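Structure (tokenized):
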């Protein structure tokens, strides 16, 4: 153990690759279980050995410094080890989104200009998306692909190679959610990504990951392993299975997107599990209406919810948590909390000037963890030459410093000379006792109008007329909203509301 740590000691801390810190943590915890998935537990020594063997196999196939390695991966320990193995060789890695859509995945791979792709048995159906990439390997048995996992079993490397890199070297591509189109990928250097995940010690933290690794999940894995915590991986989100895992594994932290949070807390089995170890459920990825937050807090039975506001391009820049996120502070339930210490947040008007407190404008952010750019820049990327990022979200900083996120600028509509966003419709609808969840979208067929898909509680009897009457009473200006009652809100692979599928539910005959 001391020899391995000594190999890294000459690397200045301010230029140390985050992965070297993770490797040293695994050495320190070589006899402790640090990672678990659906199949097995990994002690620090087990994970190190797997990373070392896979790094040997990738190096033998010519993978090295400067290559971009795409992982079409499930949420497993082998996927984490394969990513770390590629990084040990100086490659830049990306967990791919859209594994369920070959066409969308193939376009993503072209956009990132991948040099190699790693496919797993669970994602074998998506292997055709990587057909244009010469260096494509299986991590496990995948049709005609070379199985690097099987080939690595004959190698006895116990330690991965020491990685020396410059702060400015390309390190990680992080996919965007792709809610309204094909995902983009933001580029981070070693220094930028290390700042994103190096959030301090996490001893005693038992983090459950049950969403795809392409998004925030990968950063949570890195943060918790680097800090000395334990990561538990589950390939799929199923409320009953996740509740059982929380109880059995004594989970302390869980991160979900909003629709999955609703499914978890509304599960009929929720009250029957011992969830006393759980200290925080973070929810991201949608505009949570204050009325929904109040209901979920009552369902949870204690102030356990956390709402970070951020994105793959810039990380988390504000957070609503603790006493602020409780039934005792209803005034704050419509906010994303206050900006974090290292984040700079400005609300800017249409001319780019800073707004005064209470005025609505574009949310612009600057953080040490801000990405450099996208691999393929859209017409308006948000990255500015002055080091700021324009998020595309409209918001307000109130006089007390709380950030109110109103929604995407593209979703804003003017009704009765006021700016209205989908969250306004969702908040009104979720105030009806029969409404379990609602998602609103701008009406593509009418100016300054919206539509909403609504899921009711099991056994609820509210009709379309009842909900329309409720909306007219609560928010008369929104009475023209097209309403559609559905048994379930469609979601993306990440668990976000699926904006591509929702219009056919809300406006089926148009």
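Design, position by position:
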């Amino acid at each position: 153990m001391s020899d391995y740590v000594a190999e890294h000691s000459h690397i200045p801390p301010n230029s140390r690759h985050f992965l070297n810190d993770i490797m040293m943590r695994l050495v320190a915890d070589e006899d402790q279980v640090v990672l678990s998935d659906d199949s097995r537990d990994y002690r620090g020594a087990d994970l190190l050995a797997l990373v070392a063997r896979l790094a040997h196999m990738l190096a033998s196939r010519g993978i090295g410094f400067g290559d971009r390695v795409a992982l079409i991966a499930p949420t497993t320990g082998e996927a984490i080890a394969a990513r770390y193995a590629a990084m040990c060789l100086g490659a830049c890695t990306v967990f791919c989104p859209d594994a369920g859509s070959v066409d969308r995945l193939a376009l993503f791979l072209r956009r990132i200009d991948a040099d190699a792709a790693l496919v797993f048995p669970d994602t074998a159906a998506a292997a055709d998306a990587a057909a244009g990439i010469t260096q494509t390997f299986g991590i496990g048995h995948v049709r005609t692909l070379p199985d690097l996992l099987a080939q690595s079993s004959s190698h006895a490397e116990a330690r991965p190679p020491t990685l020396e890199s410059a702060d400015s070297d390309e390190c990680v591509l992080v996919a965007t959610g792709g809610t309204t189109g094909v995902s983009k990928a933001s580029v981070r250097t070693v220094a930028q990504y290390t700042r994103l995940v190096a959030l301090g010690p996490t001893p005693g933290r038992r983090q459950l990951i049950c969403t795809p690794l392409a998004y925030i999940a990968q950063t949570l894995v890195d943060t918790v392993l680097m800090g000395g915590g334990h990561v538990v991986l589950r390939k799929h989100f199923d409320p009953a299975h996740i509740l059982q895992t929380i109880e059995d594994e004594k989970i302390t932290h869980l991160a979900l997107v909003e629709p999955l949070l609703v499914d978890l807390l509304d599960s009929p089995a929720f009250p029957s599990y011992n969830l006393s170890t759980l200290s925080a459920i973070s929810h991201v990825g949608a505009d949570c209406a204050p009325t929904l937050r109040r209901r979920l807090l009552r369902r949870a039975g204690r102030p356990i919810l956390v709402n970070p506001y951020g994105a793959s391009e810039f990380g988390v820049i504000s957070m609503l948590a603790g006493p602020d996120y409780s039934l005792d502070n209803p005034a704050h339930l419509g906010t994303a909390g206050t900006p974090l210490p290292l984040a700079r947040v400005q609300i800017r008007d249409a001319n780019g000037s800073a707004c005064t407190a209470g005025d609505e404008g574009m949310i612009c952010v600057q953080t040490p963890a801000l990405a450099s750019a996208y691999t393929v820049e859209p017409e308006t990327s948000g990255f500015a030459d002055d080091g700021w990022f324009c998020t595309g979200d409209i918001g307000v900083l109130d006089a007390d410093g709380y950030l109110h996120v109103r929604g995407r600028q593209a979703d804003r509509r003017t009704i009765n000379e006021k700016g209205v966003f989908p969250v306004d419709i969702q908040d009104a609808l979720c105030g009806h006792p029969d409404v379990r969840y609602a998602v609103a979208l701008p009406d593509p067929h009418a100016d300054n109008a919206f539509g909403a898909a609504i899921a009711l509680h099991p056994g609820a009897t509210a009709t379309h007329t009842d909900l329309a009457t409720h909306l007219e009473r609560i928010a008369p200006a929104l009475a023209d909203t097209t309403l559609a009652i559905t048994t379930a809100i469609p979601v993306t692979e990440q668990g976000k509301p699926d904006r591509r599928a929702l219009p056919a539910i809300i406006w089926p005959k148009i």
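Reviewer-requested clarification: Confidence is low (pLDDT under 50) at residues 1-15. DSSP finds 14 helices and 25 strands in the chain.
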